[in-house]
Amino acid sequence: MATEAKSGGYLACRLSPGEREALAGRLFPHSEVTPAGYEAIYPPRALPPGAMVTRLGPSPTGFVHLGNLYGALADERLAHQSGGVFILRVEDTDEKREVPGAVELLIDALAYFGLRFDEGETAQGDKGDYGPYRQRRRAAIYQAIAKYLVERGRAYPCFCTEAELAALRERQAAAGENPGYYGSWAAHRDLPLTEINERLERGEPFVIRLRSLGEPDRAFTLSDGIRGRLTMPENRQDFVLLKADGIPTYHFAHVVDDHFMRVTHILRGEEWLATLPYHWELFQALDWRPPVFCHTAVLMKMEDGVKRKLSKRKDPELGLDYYRQLGYHPAAARAYLLTVLNSHYEEWRLANPLAPLEDFPFTTAKMGSSGALFDLDKLRNVSKDTFAAMTAGEAADFLLAWAGQWEPGTGAVLAAERAYLEAVLNIGRGGDNPRKDLIYGRQILDFISFFFDPWFGAGGDWLAALPERLPPGETAAVLLEEYAAGWDFAEDRQVWFGKVRELGERWGFAARPKDYQKNPTQYKGHVGDVSGLLRAALTGRRDSPDLWEIQRVMGEKRCRSRLAAAAARLRQGPEQA
Ligand code: GLU
Hints:
Elements: H1 4-7, H2 9-12, H3 17-27, H4 35-41, E1 53-56, H5 66-81, E2 85-88, H6 102-112, E3 119-122, E4 125-127, H7 139-151, E5 155-158, H8 162-174, H9 193-201, E6 207-210, E7 219-224, E8 228-233, E9 240-242, H10 250-260, E10 265-269, H11 276-285, E11 292-296, E12 299-303, E13 306-309, H12 320-326, H13 330-341, H14 345-351, E14 372-373, H15 376-388, H16 392-406, H17 408-416, H18 418-425, H19 441-448, H20 474-486, H21 493-506, E15 509-510, H22 513-518, E16 525-526, H23 527-539, H24 547-554, H25 556-571
Parallel strand pairs: 1-2, 2-3, 10-11, 12-14, 15-16
Antiparallel strand pairs: 3-4, 5-6, 6-9, 7-8, 12-13
Helix pairs in contact: 3-7, 10-11, 13-15, 16-17, 16-18, 16-19, 20-21, 20-25
Bound molecules: glutamic acid (GLU).
């Protein structure tokens, strides 16, 4: 704890040690445990050397955003790859913003992305020896430390009203001085004890402020885990530690909590850099060793060639729900976020294509310090790779679980045809150049829906998928009927394609697009039109994976019935379309 000489607090404070003690006792009559007592309750952790203790400190506002996941993934990696501890601490000091169920929501959202806490708040309450893990339940600890600071002459009650503070700001503006409560502007910094007592007697509301000993022309230096060496001017603001209702400010709560939870690395947004001198002074005032601060870059996106901050109002992709509802695979989200978090992740991935993500040596030193660029297109590419690297069975498991939650009706249809679903998802899988067209749950459902009779042709007129040179009518109908008559389900791809070509030639379609291009008047079209017709009849689409493979997967019966239905419809011509 701070010594008199070290803090200088006694010298600067006009109250005698006895007066300070009396004041502290009066301000915090119920605070009995001393800081030393809390040191014993929360002893240094017995962890292997190098183990990191990290925490996520979300406010329970009900909105779980990408920034939470981004920070959480970094915290989780640091803790778990070093044999340390990952804590969930709920920062619920702002009661007005709290939404019921927000903590469960957060835990659930992060669990979906594979992030699990070792310690902290859980749906069933506290887990761990360093709690409570909700700040509102830690009031006694904050009071004890505030009391200690008052005793040491490093904190004092301030009775200034809002109006007085506003007048102060005006005077400072008029004098061209920096705003704030500091130095000679700090009117209640040195109130005599008698006046303090009178005001307390009258029941005047008060806050507890730090008595800053900082000098603006003095600087301190620290090493940020991400930004490296930082030199900043000392704090001189007598900032608020406890508000009038006894609730701590972020500045005070974070210092007290991170100390007593024995956090070794604080990962937080760069918006906290500006007040880092506050936190630094508090650690010094308490003679506590500060953890390693790691200030992360804000998440940005590119819009019309300009980088801007992701915004809750404008960007649905800022909410984590967005990814779950759409059915992004958690592994894809994790892998993608690692590419944003650590500049050498992609290189590592190329060199270690099969290694589990947990093997990647994550480090704060490789985190960028300016604007982390979030790019949905890139996430989609990582997702495609993720699905391409899975087995069809794994992809089916994921899809069924996701659909079961978000599209239960669809999920039930798929679950009833599990083997078929797997065969569908297996198309183009494996080999050196696997297909990469599966991105996320909703997109996959859409992409594969035509395989399933209940959705085939749904939501659109398949006639629109017909090639222009084969509109609805007799020719198209006859082509389909002749195709069906000559088709042998067992034939291989070459034989099959040879037959499609011959069929087209018989009806005046060039065997190769090239021939048609050279002599368009000589043909009705080319073989691509014929396969386009088959594709429209079988899939209802203009584009699809390989048609021969699709037929193999759909099975003979389903194909024949679709071909027959299509021919019948085409014979009716376009007018009834
Ligand atoms: N509750 C703070 C926030 O939401 C946490 C900051 C920190 O991690 O220290 O920004």
